[in-house]
Amino acid sequence: MSTTAAAIAVLAGLALLLGGLIAAISRRLGNREADAVERLNAVLPQTQCAQCGYPGCRPYAAAMLAGEVDINRCPPGGEATIADLARLLGREPVALAPELQGAPPPQVAVIDERRCIGCTLCLKACPVDAIVGAAQYMHTVIEAECTGCELCLAPCPVDCIDLVPRAASVPATGRLPAPTQS
Ligand code: SF4
Ligand code: SF4
Ligand code: SF4
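That is the input. Now the predicted structure with iron/sulfur cluster docked in place:
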């Protein structure tokens, strides 16, 4: 092998090595970021209500990690969640954003089962599988699972789903804070 060919082979080998190293570092950084998002997401209430301005808890967690949004935009979580987020991010707790302080209390969906035609459209729309039912049979909402996100309302062709305040007696799944008594 000529000297030039040997030099090219060495350079190609180095380039391959460097590429592999960069890919490994990127993978590792990506995993770390995903883990950090999961840790933040784990302290959010998982109601997927979008009051934070993001389509769900995980996107809000990702935005917080990226520094795009403050830690005080989750009304269902309130002060306890802000304190958890502050601890995880090494920041000082802050008050809930003023524009979110009058947020409505937690709600749940209720299906008027006499009018339900069993079309299953609400069932497909529910992001947390809080609706049970089968085609041609009435559907019903598992109140403890419902996050009050309203996503099932629009698809219902007979408009038989309403949102009502979550009753204090409804057992929480652990994903929702206990309702505040006014
Ligand atoms: S529970 Fe909180 S973080 Fe989750 S979607 Fe609702 S406001 Fe956003
Ligand atoms: S409001 Fe409707 S779509 Fe949203 S969680 Fe409750 S049952 Fe599911
Ligand atoms: S969308 Fe309305 S009619 Fe269809 S199954 Fe759900 S509640 Fe019943």
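Residues 3-100 form one domain.
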